[in-house]
Amino acid sequence: MNTVELIKKKRDGKSLTSDEIKYLISSYTKKKIPDYQFSAFLMAAFLKGMNKKETAALTEAMLYSGKIINLNSIPGSKIDKHSTGGVGDKTSLILAPIVAAAGVNVPMISGRGLGHSGGTLDKLESIPGFRTNLSLTKYKQVIKSCGAVLAGQTKDVAPADKLIYSLRDVTATIESIPLITASIMSKKLAEGIDGLVLDVKTGSGAFMKKTSDAVELANSLIKTAKTFNKKVIAFITDMNQPLGKYVGNWLEVYESIMVLRGEQKDDLFELSTLLSGAMIYLGGKASSIKEGVEISKQLIKNGKAFNKFLEIVKLQNGNISIIKHPEKYPKSKVIEYIYADKSGYINSMDNYQIGMSALELGAGRKTKEDKIEPKAGLIFKYKIGDRVKKGDVLVELRGESENTIESVKQSLNKAILISNKKTAKPTLIKKILK
Asked: Which residues form the catalytic set?
């Protein structure tokens, strides 16, 4: 096959065959196609789009570029969740132990933070000793022992995705629904799952700002999952404000502990038990999502979900005494506050700016080499629609540098708007798609 001819074919808006797509992915992964040619192909695919068959073929080629984890030796259903990312989105830490406690296996391969959006691996690694870099043997051992694992992508799993993602990041080809679909699904299918629950975010802190774009992405992911005979449910959920109250790596682990102990019942609790319920339903341990939600709440209430989290942390070398006594975790050097400058109602939040503020404090990376400060982050006292009085603390900021905190305070002051008129609280669950 001729690479230039295939680039030209896609540039002219024609569909590529499965064999042509397989050739492009295989050749690029084996370094037979240089970056500049593959970049041209990505831009052609970005501008001209890819149909359902092409998207499935791209997913398959990326999936088979590496190993597919075989979990047949582990009895029971294997169900995972994927979120498109956001600010304060720590549901993986809560739902994995809930679903495992319900008797459904959760083989979860997670990612790191990207831009304003936090990453599950960074959150887990704020737990002293916690290992996310597991061999496939250890990965399987942990699932066999406790029914869940929270690990990072190994070099054997969908290696084409790692290469292509790095190139998309620097060639302005990120926001393509077929390319996003193939990236997500190749990794998830490589886990050896039977089903997948999708949490597709929309709003100011989401990758998909418009609900219509989130629905389009969800439908693309659903079609691709079904092409591979996987059970799938997608939720379109709100990301116009942080999920829960805490943003930052250890802070989000701390909040997850509170939810798992039944000490916090808010939007984070609601979304975590909904996603857990859908996973329990897909895993055959509930006759409906509603029943799955009730099982999730019961497992929090009777302490089994929290005990399962302790089990996962211990098996992945984490310090369980800090999970049992999170108040003993070291505190940030600098703690500052933002106060309401007038009375009224929280009208809106610029959630992207909030995510970037957490990053500036050290909770995220500006470059791949940056080290994360696990203690850094933000604690929100109010949500959109809440009434506040002048002088009330709106946000608590935690960091290591006074200069950084001062500049972040200025950004955050502009990110939270207070209005005289009562504002409606955002709808958390916007759509359910199957």
From this structure: 82, 161, 168, 183, 187
